[in-house]
Amino acid sequence: MLPLLNIHWNPDPELFNLFGISIRYYGLLWVIGLAFAYFIVQKEYRDRRIGDDKFEPLFFYCFFGILIGARLGHCLFYQPDYYLHHFWEMILPVKFLPDGGWKFTGYEGLASHGGTLGLIIALWLYCRKTKMHYMDVLDMIAVATPITACCIRLANLMNSEIIGRPTDVPWAFVFERVDMVPRHPAQFYEALAYFVFFLGMVWLYKRGQKQAPATPRTDFSKGAKADAQVTPLYHRGFFFGLCLTEIFVFRFFIEFLKENQVDFEDGMTLNMGQWLSVPFVLIGLYFMFFYGRQKKA
Prior knowledge:
- The chain is mainly α.
- Helix content is 54%, strand content 8%.
- It has one domain (25-295).
- It has helices at residues 25-47, 52-55, 58-77, 80-83, 87-91, 112-130, 134-158, 186-210, 238-254, 272-289; strands spanning 7-9, 14-18, 21-24, 94-96, 102-104, 173-175, 182-183.
- It has a three-stranded mixed beta sheet with strand order 1-6-7, with no helix packed on it.
- InterPro entries: Lgt.
């Protein structure tokens, strides 16, 4: 039998303090994840010979779409009773105190399902503005999404949040800020899985690039036909569907190793994260196997 390692985990969430401004691992890892996505998608745009004038506004739409969606998703899916009576705390990164004052807390609670939905809506608005084909943009974003998700879960690990259930596995973490019980490091499991998904996405993308015609077409406007893609091995929507399917299938099953995030989940057969994952998996399977298949290049 392997000896119990019981990794004691209690990092200071604050990396350093600069002139009274707290720089935390959580925010830093979010920025790193978005930076990775920025450079990966920029490379995809250049591979497809799409001008920088269309790429430059993309980060703005993605950043605010993910942030707003993730915040509203947490507030409305997980704590609606509280936030519907504390509306401004849902919008502002502060907590209002009983004495009439307020305290800066940052956004305490971001939901990945809400962030995904917010991103999808933001990209629709972006495509309306730039006249890009919606599915081409979703496919490019999908290649980079898993590495950003990996960084977000590492951020949760540094915050000792979204913890796993008690376990006796030899690599169990003791989250000292929560209790002294050995638990599954569920955040690390997710981060590792998303990193593997990212490597797979990049491999598939490069494989498609190698099969691309010598002189790729560059018409990626909204009205362009599906056979104008630069990766003819995969139909439009394939990468988007694969990203949704692999992430949310894994999310569904990893929830069995996690503690419920809110009390009302305790009486549920499946928790909120699992119920919210199901429609994303179904949408992902549709785009992988049915959408545009008849128009595959």
